[in-house]
Amino acid sequence: MFLRDIKAMPYIDLTSPSAKKIFIQFFFTQEDPDDSGYTLDLYRVLRGHDPIKIGEVDLNECFYFIDTIEAGVTLLNLEYQYMVFKKGSPVCKGTTVPVTLRNKQHFLSHRAFLVNYMMEMRPGVGIGIDVQVVKKKRWGVFCSTCGSHGSNAPTLHKCPTCGGTGYEGGYYPPFPQSISLAGLSVSESHEGGLGVSAGASFSAQVFPYPVLERGDWLWIPSENLVIGIDVVQGYDGVSGSVTLQHISGTKVNQFESPEFEFLYKKGVFK
What we know:
The protein contains 2 helices and 14 strands, in the order ββββββββαββββββα. By secondary structure, it is mainly beta. The strands form 3 sheets. A 6-stranded antiparallel beta barrel has the order 9-10-11-14-13-12. The radius of gyration is 20 Å and the shape is flat.
């Protein structure tokens, strides 16, 4: 399994907006089906300090880690990175690029923007609506039902084990998120909330984490609406210091989609 990228970005917890948290997301490329599903040891590294182990990540169950910086530790003017190792191995699998919150003004403007944007998207407070992000598995334990051990490609489009992804379980558990109704549009609408016909195009602004990719899904429980993501574009929020995501997708026909049937049977849309 080859570590293609690690992204680290400030994470704003609405229950405690002043808390210092970092959202870390992993991206792997898996060429060998037998090299699968292992656990990572995750370390935080501050310049001039020894690496500190902050947790373990089971890559078959999760694609991210949220690091909470201890009380009394400041992020200001400190350059820090994250390193990952295969559990029990001394060989580093990858390191994030150095991240620095340059000064107090930069930190406060960054945090203020994120908090304001999240409050705007927070249901019941502003113009946001609850969604669930359903990330497709792109690495992990190779499917035991339809896996072709000569490649990492599934052999069944409607596989009951992997949902056609090629990896056990098919998708990660839903990640709670919000979307901004200010940036939402659909190609056609009907009476009754956001009701749109299957196949209708859909676009919206979403928060920068988790990073979304083509093939991921958005589920809007209040509207019984499932969106298959087709395009993801980033754009600056505040002078390049914050990158939001603008997503475009298509409403899934729940009666004709084997992926929807697979996820429904897993209990994702209940």
